[in-house]
Amino acid sequence: MLSRGGSHFLSGHSGCMLLFFLGIGSLIFLHAEAATKKYQFDVQVSNVSRLCHAKPIVTVNGQFPGPTIYAREGDRVIINVSNHAQYNMSIHWHGLKQYANVWADGPAYITQCPIKTGSSYVYDFNVTGQRGTLWWHAHILWLRATVYGAIVILPQQGTPFPFPKPDSEQVLVFGEWWHGDVEDIVKQGNAMGLPPNMSDAHTINGKPGPLFPCSEKHTFAMEVEQGKKYLLRIVNAALNDELFFAVAGHNMTVVEIDAVYTKPFTTSAILIAPGQTTNVLVHANRTPGRYFMAVRPFQDVPIPVDNKTATAIFQYKGIPNTVLPSLPQLPSPNDTAFALTYNKKLRSLNTPNFPANVPLKVDRNIFITIGLGKSVCPTCINGTRLSASLNNITFVMPQTGLLQAHYQNMKGVFTSDFPDRPPKAFNYTGAPLTANLFTSHGTRLSKIAFNSTVELVIQDTNLLSVESHPFHLHGYNFFVVGTGIGNFDPAKDPAKYNLVDPPERNTIGVPTGGWSAIRFRADNPGVWFFHCHLELHTGWGLKTAFVVEDGPGKDQAVRPPPKDLPLC
């Protein structure tokens, strides 16, 4: 049967407390139902009120955030998406590798054309070799401002977590909220050549918390019991902000990032970039009371952000709501030292059961520079429009799906000449550069041989301004083998790489005025999007795609497209 708002073996909005903790009977039932999970996603407009303002927003099944998808490692998941909203729609299953199944990845005009109003499309995929917390979101326009939700992948039956078993768990999804219609706000900004207005609040599970007006009913609370351990599955679904998160009076033990287990470490706060997920254990071992969980942006350059704090409540059982919660000590909004130190603590578990298969030999070296700039716009306020580029190329979105063009050998949709290096070397992170280097516009992709190993160095630059950039690679996990501040030095920096237990992720936060080096094996054929996960920068052109060629094996080539694939 199809399920709305939760799998047919789980109940309740957000699926907070999992049935697999409830005993042998439940385990037997789950095992019998663990082959195929079916969901119905009705994309529809719903009226929602926050911060004393009501407005219509695009939702899935009328829920904000949308329903959590539950599956087990090895399951098949079938999701029928019916679009009843006025916008075209596509949905991306962020972090799912979609091995040999690129048609189901979801980004509009990359792997599919969008689902038109009044139409439906079935996403059909297997969850192979992955377990943990991921998420899904709209991948067209800025619709992921309200169209998003978590994905919880449980381990295979009989496979324990490689950390102490929690007594219960909770999904926490961070987001942003605008008073006005987000698409209208974006259009206004684009027309003026300026960034759109920043959000009016951050949210935790769709709610901003009691530090905002009219939020008595819009505060998320989770009840805990003294002495028990809780697994928090945390998703940053914010469009444009890296976020600090902490629980007042309680430390957290980080055990997973981007659905990959880590070496556990204890911290008073975490940093999580847009697109990333983090699982932490929290022990309810403090004096029973009410404690705020809080999120606030990290921004270490003078760029305007929504710096207000969203809160939820970590509430011990039996404590009345009249008790005032205490706030956590979050890092300062510009605490670069905390951010760098925190990220250095992230390391893969690297055990026999969960190895870190880091490519030691590299077949292809790619060096990509991030550039912000201005392009001529006679109708804009200052006669210019903000833009962005990778290796001096501002990506132009096609009107035909890139995967369809690749599969059918269509001409004139894209070229495969994205350069492995920028056209001109310069002091990337030196004094601010206000003049644009030569920048071109085009739909230029990078072709990669099947099963080759790739090292990709992503270099921030001071074109207009340095800034942290979270980059997401579709279809793959990668190993973050190195990171640093300043200009990458190919003669010296590789000697400092961690090739033993580097963190494995699908989204990497390139540090402000610095670089990150990632490695992966190109064993998943298809066209895979690579882009900054700040929606602002993606819209400005900070994106490209990799065409991974077919391999020789039966399951090493792009399959024929589904019969109901949306056409442009």
**Outline, from the CA principal axes?**
globular
- Largest sheet: spatial strand order: 10-9-12-17-14-15
Q: What count of helical segments does DSSP give?
A: 5
The unreliable regions are 5-32
> What is the level-2 CATH architecture name of the largest domain?
Sandwich
- Total count of strands: 32
| Number of spatially distinct domains | 3
Report the top-level CATH class of the largest domain: Mainly Beta
Helix content: under 10%
The major beta sheet can be summarized as: 6 strands, mixed
Task: Tell me the strand percentage band.
Answer: 35-45%
CATH topology of the largest domain: Immunoglobulin-like
Based on secondary structure, the structural category is: mainly beta
CATH H-level homologous superfamily name of the largest domain: Cupredoxins -  blue copper proteins
Note the gap between the termini.
Answer: 31 Å
Q: Radius of gyration over alpha carbons?
A: 23 Å
Mean pLDDT: 93
How would you portray this structure in words?
It catalyses: 4 hydroquinone + O2 = 4 benzosemiquinone + 2 H2O. One of its GO terms (biological process) is lignin catabolic process. Keywords: Apoplast, Copper, Glycoprotein, Lignin degradation, Metal-binding, Oxidoreductase, Repeat, Secreted, Signal. The chain has 568 residues and is mainly β. The chain has 3 domains: 33-158, Immunoglobulin-like (Sandwich); 163-345, Immunoglobulin-like (Sandwich); 364-548, Cupredoxins -  blue copper proteins (Immunoglobulin-like, Sandwich), CATH 2.60.40.420. It is 7% helix and 37% strand. It has helices spanning 24-32, 182-192, 336-344, 402-407, 535-540, and strands at residues 36-50, 53-60, 69-72, 76-83, 91-94, 120-126, 132-138, 148-154, 168-177, 201-204, 221-224, 229-236, 242-247, 252-257, 260-267, 270-272, 277-283, 290-298, 310-316, 364-376, 384-390, 393-395, 440-442, 446-448, 453-459, 469-473, 478-485, 504-505, 507-510, 514-521, 526-532, 543-548. The strands form 7 sheets. A 6-stranded mixed β-sheet has the order 10-9-12-17-14-15, with no helix packed on it. The longest helix has 11 residues, at 182-192. It is globular and about 65 Å long. 51% of the residues are buried. Mean pLDDT is 93; it is low at 5-32.
